[in-house]
């Protein structure tokens, strides 16, 4: 499935990409190209995340979750790749933005970088939560791959988001059991990406503190 078809199946993401890109393009004032790109990335993320979280944490029934998950299954690798590349590339852009902040002594640059870090960090577990749901519902005849405790019925997007944020924040799976090889590989991928991103954020935080002290 090509990227356009996958965006068509994700109206929230398409809306965020179109609106965010247009706003970044027409943003007034003279702005460096890397700052304008980072601005566009922020606008897309902060438009998309509330829409995605509303969908995931809303009152969609189990059948709605299953239907959405299966419709998005084919394009999941592409979306994860784009989210991971975007999040990691944003680290390099943030480093440039912090260099500008250090030269100009403007607190707005630091706040801008912090907003980028927060948005990029949240994007990965949201996309992986959607990916876990798609893999879970891919085939009724095969093992789902995640075993949620309790007797609340089939998991909803909130359960997958809980699992995904737990992996991103703690690098462990808490009370959810991973019971299939494809799911273990997906969890491993998220854990590695989260480790790289969290390490990059930690390194930049130490750099910022060192700059403030000096």
UniProtKB/TrEMBL annotation:
Keyword Transmembrane helix attached: yes
The protein's name: Membrane protein
Top-rank lineage group of the source organism: Bacteria
InterPro entries noted in UniProt: DUF1345 (IPR009781)
Keywords: Membrane, Transmembrane, Transmembrane helix
Sequence intervals crossing the membrane: 12-33, 39-57, 78-98, 110-133, 187-213
Organism placement in taxonomy: Bacteria, Pseudomonadati, Pseudomonadota, Betaproteobacteria, Burkholderiales
